[in-house]
């Protein structure tokens, strides 16, 4: 974890004191947050995200920006009609946050969209300056890199423009209101022009009763202390043990930094071979890609014993995305790579680590942090995030005709020193890597995408080789 300046520590201490004595990322106990049953109540993951927002409301680290292009016979008016339907039905997107007695809750408000004089541009949740004819990419970047005041602003900004059979929408949303499970309802409504609703409700788990939840939390804490929260966990980028005191460690995760993002395509033929490898080692393709991230972390940093932080869905059956926003979870996983083991053995071991950790994915990260802090522990080492995620439009039903396309807009912030993501749409997969310059060594940053894509290429034919032999081949292919 990067060392904080004294000025930054002072600022964070003041913000924590102003917002109460809960540490960054913790959720105060609130029985209603476990299973909110009426609109306005926050779920437990939302309370965790809200605490982060309260500590630094000027941050744009949780702004998500997308540019959606509609081809074919879609008109500006038809896209605007879909947007108006969305904000009418998707209640968290048309709400502000109020705090009473320290407890946040949503209040639905009325906002009207506005047309430019030419009726070629329509905006919702934006000021007059966004109605002009500014170049689209410039506008998308500006809107994505502008903080939300969630006390007065709804967590959504929309700008629709275009003509001649091609319509463009800039969509910016705060992460408090959405997670990856929100996209089918949100983007499905925009693309189809019809309200999609909560399409995956029956596939989600029910909320456990209080006794079961307490038991699973205890088990999750024991797992943490045995693995990713143990005292001997080192920072993978430096190989050093944490140097901060336990008290200072709870502040350091709030030090957002400017970041750089790069992307690279993953070869289709390599992914097809990779699916066969997943069957051999007894893992899902997604789990196997997290295993690749662990091998990549070893190749890039030289640390065979490291923690990766993996995001996961934690939405319950009674938490429709239009009424309950962020339901994400954070699952730290501690990997130990043996260079003398075969690649197949290393991937099997990685899968075992992943599945043991995912047994506790139903317990939110906030209560685990609270328990660790109450025991006098430190904030866990969290330098590298790894994820496998669907592209926002993946699986979204589309009308006949030319498809809509979607691309993300980088908010300029790296939430972790190093983040690795495999993102898959309906046709291809690519890897995205973002990092914090000055924290991540230059040689690690420049090699990262090459190492990840090369590992996907090399692993299917290297299962009988040792990990050391695989990394030697990798070094020849992607020199340091």
From TrEMBL:
Organism, as annotated: Gordonia amicalis
UniProt protein name: Peptide synthetase
Entry-linked Gene3D superfamilies: Chloramphenicol acetyltransferase-like domain, Nonribosomal peptide synthetase, condensation domain
Gene Ontology MF annotations: phosphopantetheine binding
SUPFAM superfamilies: CoA-dependent acyltransferases (SSF52777)
GO biological process terms on file: amino acid activation for nonribosomal peptide biosynthetic process; secondary metabolite biosynthetic process
Signal sequence coordinates: none
GO cellular component annotations of the record: cytoplasm
InterPro entries assigned to the protein according to its UniProt record, in alphabetical order: CAT-like_dom_sf
PANTHER family with a match to the protein in the record: FATTY ACID SYNTHASE (PTHR45527:SF1), NONRIBOSOMAL PEPTIDE SYNTHETASE (PTHR45527)
Superkingdom classification of source: Bacteria
């Amino acid at each position: 974890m990067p060392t904080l300046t004294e000025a930054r520590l002072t600022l964070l201490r003041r913000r924590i004191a102003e917002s109460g004595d809960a540490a960054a990322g913790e959720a105060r106990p609130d029985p209603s947050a476990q299973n909110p049953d009426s609109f306005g109540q926050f779920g437990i993951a939302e309370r965790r995200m809200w605490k982060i927002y309260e500590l630094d409301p000027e941050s744009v680290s949780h702004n998500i920006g997308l540019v959606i292009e509609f081809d074919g016979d879609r008109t500006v008016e038809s896209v605007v009609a879909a947007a108006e339907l969305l904000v009418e039905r998707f209640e968290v997107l048309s709400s502000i946050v109020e705090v009473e007695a320290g407890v946040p809750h949503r209040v639905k408000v009325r906002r009207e969209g506005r047309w430019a004089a030419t009726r070629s541009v329509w905006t919702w949740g934006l000021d007059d300056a966004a109605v002009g004819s500014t170049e689209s990419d410039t506008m998308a970047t500006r809107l994505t890199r502008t903080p939300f005041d969630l006390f007065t602003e709804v967590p959504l900004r929309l700008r629709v423009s275009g003509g001649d059979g091609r319509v463009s929408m800039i969509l910016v949303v705060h992460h408090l209101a959405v997670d990856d499970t929100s996209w089918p309802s949100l983007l499905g409504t925009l693309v189809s022009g019809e309200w999609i609703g909560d399409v995956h409700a029956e596939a989600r788990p029910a909320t456990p009763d209080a006794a079961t939840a307490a038991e699973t939390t205890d088990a999750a804490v024991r797992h943490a202390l045995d693995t990713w929260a143990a005292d001997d966990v080192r920072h993978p980028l430096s190989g050093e043990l944490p140097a901060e005191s336990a008290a200072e460690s709870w502040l350091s995760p709030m030090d957002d930094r400017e970041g750089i993002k790069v992307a690279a395509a993953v070869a289709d033929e390599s992914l097809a071979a990779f699916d066969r490898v997943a069957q051999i080692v007894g893992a899902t393709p997604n789990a196997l890609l997290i295993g690749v991230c662990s091998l990549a972390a070893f190749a890039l940093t030289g640390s065979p014993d490291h923690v990766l932080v993996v995001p996961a869905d934690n939405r319950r059956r009674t938490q429709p995305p239009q009424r309950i926003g962020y339901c994400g979870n954070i699952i730290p996983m501690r990997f130990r790579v043996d260079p003398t083991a075969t690649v197949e053995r290393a991937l099997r071991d990685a899968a075992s680590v992943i599945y043991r950790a995912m047994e506790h994915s139903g317990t939110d990260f906030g209560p685990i942090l609270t328990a660790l802090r109450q025991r006098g522990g430190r904030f866990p080492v969290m330098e590298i995030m790894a994820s496998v995620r669907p592209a926002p439009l993946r699986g979204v039903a589309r009308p006949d005709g030319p498809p809509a396309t979607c691309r993300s807009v980088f908010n300029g912030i790296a939430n972790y020193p190093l983040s690795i993501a495999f993102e898959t749409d309906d046709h291809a997969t690519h890897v995205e890597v973002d990092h914090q310059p000055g924290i991540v060594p230059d040689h690690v940053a420049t090699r990262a995408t090459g190492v990840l894509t090369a590992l996907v290429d090399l692993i299917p034919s290297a299962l009988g080789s040792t990990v050391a032999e695989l990394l030697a081949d990798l070094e020849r292919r992607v020199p340091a």
